[in-house]
Each structure stands twice: as C-alpha cells, then as structure tokens.
Specification:
Urm1, Ubiquitin-like (UB roll), mainly beta, 1 helix, five-stranded mixed sheet, Beta-grasp_dom_sf, Mopterin_synth/thiamin_S_b
C-alpha cells in the first residue's frame, strides 16, 4: 500500500532531515494501517532526530496539526483513522520560535 505522507510548515520538516514531503509505501500487515501505527512507523523510519519534538506518547505533540486529505484528523477519528490507498497525511507545526 502506498500512502503519500507530507510534512510541511513551521519547522516540522527539520526533524525529517529537511525533507518536506515523503511518498511512503507501508509494509503489508494483517490489520489495516491506522494513524496510530503510522506514527510508530514514522518514528522508527523517518524521524532523524529528537522524536520528542514530534511525538508525545503514541500521538503527536500538542501544537502539531494533523490533516488527512485536507480535513482535521479530529473529524476523522484521530489515531483510529484507517488509512486508505493514496491518503494524504499532512503534519503542520503551529509552534514557532520567537
């Protein structure tokens, strides 16, 4: 399964070696991929440094907005949202240094 995965804005891409957009193919697994499993996969495979700035527990840190196909993930079930082929997942950091 291939899921476009985007990391944009507000410095979040700095945690991913400066790469703003990742096109990822997730490995097959018995149960459907959800955002909870996607975040674990991101932590293991994409985060290059300081995962605590992106994740808190099994979710994203406060201040990181998650959009799934341009909709707030709160409307989609957050961690329990089941990913579909060609979903676009966007992480936006709303925290800015000053």
């Amino acid at each position: 399964e291939s899921f476009p995965l985007s990391v944009h804005k507000g410095g979040a891409e700095l945690l991913f070696d400066g790469v703003k957009k990742h096109q990822v193919t997730l490995p097959c697994q018995p149960e459907p991929w959800d955002i909870r499993n996607l975040l674990k996969w991101i932590r293991q495979n994409l985060l290059k440094e300081r995962p605590e700035l992106f994740m808190q527990g099994e979710s994203v840190r406060p201040g990181i907005l998650v959009l799934i196909n341009d909709a707030d993930w709160e409307l989609m079930g957050e961690l329990d949202y089941k990913l579909q082929d060609q979903d676009n997942v966007l992480f936006i950091s709303t925290l800015h240094g000053g």
